Each structure stands twice: as C-alpha cells, then as structure tokens.
Amino acid sequence: MVRYVQGELAKLADPAKAAPMAAYMKTDMPFYGVSKPDRVPIVRVVKSRFPPVHGDDYRDKVRALWELPHREEKYLAIGYAWTFRQHVVFAQIDLFERMITEGAWWTSSTSWRPPSSARSYSRIASG
Predict the structure, then answer these.
(1) How many structural domains comprise the chain?
(2) From the CB of residue 86, how many other CB atoms can be counted at a distance below 10 Å?
(3) 4, 49, 52, 121: which is deepest, by most CB within 10 A?
(4) What is the domain extent for residue 101?
(5) pLDDT in tens, 27-76
(6) How far apart are CA 97 and CA 92, in angstroms?
(7) What confidence score (pLDDT) does residue 124 get?
(8) Helix axis angle, 71-83 to 15-25, nearest 10°
(9) What is the DSSP string of 10-45?
C-alpha cells in the first residue's frame, strides 16, 4: 500500500507547486505538490485495493501512511482512517490522538471533522 501511494504521488508530483505549498502552509515538511483533487482518486484505489482485514491491520495501515514524510501522505492517512468508519472506535483513540497531536497544523482542522452521522459519532464517543 505504501509503495502504491508513494508511486502515485511521485507520478503526480509537481516540484513547481511543492515549494509554494510548503511556504503557504508555513512548514518545513516536504510536499509532492499534489493538490486534493488529484489525491482523491488515490484514496479511492487504496480503499478498494487495501481494505483493512481487522482492527490491528487498520491501525498498521493508517500508521504506515502517517509515518511517511510528505504532507500529502499524511492527508491520505487521515482520509484512509475516515474511510473505514467501522474501525473508528474508542480502542483506536491513541492512534487518533497521536495523529491529531503530531498533525496540529492550522489546515488540519478540516481533515479531522467528526463523521457526518450522529450515530457514528455516538459509537465513537461511547467506545
């Protein structure tokens, strides 16, 4: 999964956009220069080709993406995490806490919005 994500991002990389993106985000974190509309198809393929088999697999896959160095990879980790809402449970709170703490960028607040349905939110909150 990681090789697929890095390969796709590398194919779409635009160095001319990467530096301005980092400057706009006020970060030293590297960027590929791939905007959100171009990342969405990657998330769709990852969802269909690499679904988690169980909770530990989910955790491992989210963490594997999160630990990659580029900002777009971290956005994909967040997208992957929300895609499999059946795994967004209290038992994973330490994973989400880590991602929220390490990803405390001013732009990340929109990525960490709660699930759209109140039922899902209640399930998370109640464990």
Answers:
(1) 1
(2) 10
(3) 52
(4) 2-126
(5) 788 999 999 999 999 999 999 999 999 999 999 999 999 999 999 999 99
(6) 9
(7) 46
(8) 80
(9) HHH--HHHHHHHHHHHT--S------HHHHHHHHHH
